[in-house]
């Protein structure tokens, strides 16, 4: 009885959506975290404190 294993290596095409999602998420986090307008600050205030991101 022989067994074979199939090595799966990720291709660039399968990594692209993951990397784009990570970059987009980080950009949203930093945009909301470092924004100073009062309306955006108030809208994201509770979320920032819930995730441990200091805002003031």
Describe this structure as you would to a colleague:
The chain has 56 residues and is an all-alpha fold. It has a domain at 15-51. Helices cover 66% and strands 0% of the residues. It has two helices and no strands. The protein has helices at 12-34, 38-51. The longest helix has 23 residues, at 12-34. The protein is elongated. The mean pLDDT is 75. InterPro entries: CbtB_put. This is CbtB-domain containing protein. Pfam families: CbtB.
Brief summary:
This is CbtB-domain containing protein. The protein has 56 residues and is mainly alpha-helical.
Shape: elongated
Computed CA radius of gyration, to the nearest angstrom: 20 Å
Helix and strand element order: HH
**Count of β-strands:** 0
Indicate the percent of residues in helices.
55-70%
Mean pLDDT: 75
Distance between the termini: 66 Å
User: The biggest beta sheet, please?
Assistant: none
Determine the strand fraction and express it as a percent band. Answer: under 5%
Structural class estimated from helices and strands: mainly alpha
Instruction: Outline the low-pLDDT stretches.
Output: none
Count of discrete alpha- or pi-helical segments spanning 4 or more residues: 2
């Amino acid at each position: 009885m022989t067994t074979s294993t199939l090595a799966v290596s990720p291709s660039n095409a399968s990594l692209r959506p993951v990397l784009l999602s990570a970059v987009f998420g980080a950009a949203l986090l930093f945009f909301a975290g470092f924004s100073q307008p009062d309306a955006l600050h108030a809208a994201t205030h509770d979320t920032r404190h819930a995730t441990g991101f200091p805002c003031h």
